[in-house]
Each structure stands twice: as structure tokens, then as C-alpha cells.
């Protein structure tokens, strides 16, 4: 039997509850650490987390509270499009990350962090965290769910919807943040997307 056929015929065991628990824990810790880097440098990112970061800068409200609240409208959509298991896991992941962002300032501080390296490190940590969550059937944001619904109903590609949202978000950021901050933010967001694009592929890696 050719190697490709053997791989295709392999039976992949589903994740256990313990597998999912450690995956959600790892993913949320890495993502929360990424947000700690992001907010320390005063940067933003894309998608729902980026919207929450920008709103927290503009209002002075804690990121964790804003992020949790911004995601609330999307759970019903997630339930319809992705099912109950995905929605419950996503709710748990969002709640864990929101809580961790309240705790991390008391556990972690940066004496010095180069902004360019910080943007890259944010992208790597957040990308790894999101990848872990995706592999365990969860996410951290609602924009992707909306993009999938738009694709289902109109045929418009989900990736383009997400790109349009991010373009609008960074456009608004240009009105209230320094250009250098927005450029560094775009660098970090680009690394996040690159990590996911390279590693979250069903044609190359097993999803479960």
C-alpha cells in the first residue's frame, strides 16, 4: 500500500476530555500572554481580539471585560453554524482568556521589550495559542463565525470577509493611534495569520 494511502486509511483517535482540557488551557495561556505583550507595547491586532483591544484603549475599560462582552452576541451564531460542542468550548476559552488577562499583570511585568521583537513574539505566541484551540474545536472570536455564515449564504469567501474587517479595524486605528504603532501592529497580526496559514492545513496535518 502506498504511503499516502496508508496515511489516509489510518484511524485517528478523537480527543479525550483531558486532551481538550489541556489544549484549551495551553491555547488560552499563550493567547493571554500574547495580549499582555500587545497591550504593554500599546499595539492592536485583528479580528475580535483586535476590536476589544482598540475599545479598551479608547474607553479605559479592562481588555478582559471588553473581550468577554464583545463575544457574547456571537455564541448564538456559533451554535447554529458550528454546533454546541464548538460553542461551549469557545465560551470556556474566551472566559479563561478574559480571566487570565486580569491576573497576568500581577504575575508578569516587562522591564524592557523591543517593540519589533515584541510584535513578532506576540504573533508567534498568539498563533500557537489559536492553533491549539482550533485543533481542539474552539476559537477566541466571533468575526470568523460571521465570515463563515456570510460564505454559506452568499458564497463570498470567509477569508475576504475577515480581511475586510481587519482592514476597517486598522483604518480606524490609524485615526487614533500613531502610524508606527499601527505598522508594528500589522506586523504582529501578519505573523499570527502566517503561523495559522502554514500549520492549520487539513491537507498537510491531521486536525484531531
UniProtKB/TrEMBL annotation:
The organism's place on the tree of life at top rank: Bacteria
Keywords: Cell membrane, Membrane, Transmembrane, Transmembrane helix
Chain ranges passing through the membrane: 24-44, 51-76, 82-104, 167-196
UniProt xrefs under InterPro entries: UPF0750_membrane (IPR051461), YitT (IPR003740)
Locations listed in the record: Cell membrane
Full protein name: YitT family protein
Keyword Aminoacyl-tRNA synthetase annotated: no
Keyword Membrane: yes
Membrane topology label: Multi-pass membrane protein
Chief location category: membrane
Amino acid at each position: 500500500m502506498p504511503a499516502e494511502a496508508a496515511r489516509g486509511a489510518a484511524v485517528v483517535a478523537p480527543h479525550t476530555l483531558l486532551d481538550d482540557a489541556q489544549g484549551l488551557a495551553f491555547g488560552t495561556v499563550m493567547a493571554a500572554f500574547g495580549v499582555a505583550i500587545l497591550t504593554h507595547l500599546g499595539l492592536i491586532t485583528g479580528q475580535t481580539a483586535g476590536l476589544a483591544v482598540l475599545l479598551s484603549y479608547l474607553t479605559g475599560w479592562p481588555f478582559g471585560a471588553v473581550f468577554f462582552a464583545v463575544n457574547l452576541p456571537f455564541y448564538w451564531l456559533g451554535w447554529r453554524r458550528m454546533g454546541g460542542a464548538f460553542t461551549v468550548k469557545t465560551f470556556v476559552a474566551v472566559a479563561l482568556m478574559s480571566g487570565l488577562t486580569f491576573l497576568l499583570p500581577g504575575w508578569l511585568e516587562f522591564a524592557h521589550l523591543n517593540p519589533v521583537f515584541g510584535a513578532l513574539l506576540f504573533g508567534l505566541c498568539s498563533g500557537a495559542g489559536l492553533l491549539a484551540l482550533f485543533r481542539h474545536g474552539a476559537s477566541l472570536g466571533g468575526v470568523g463565525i460571521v465570515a463563515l455564515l456570510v460564505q454559506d449564504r452568499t458564497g463570498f469567501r470567509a477569508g475576504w470577509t475577515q480581511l475586510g474587517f481587519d482592514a476597517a479595524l486598522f483604518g480606524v486605528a490609524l485615526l487614533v493611534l500613531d502610524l508606527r504603532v499601527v505598522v508594528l501592529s500589522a506586523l504582529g497580526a501578519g505573523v499570527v495569520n502566517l503561523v495559522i496559514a502554514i500549520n492549520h492545513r487539513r491537507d498537510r496535518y491531521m486536525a484531531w
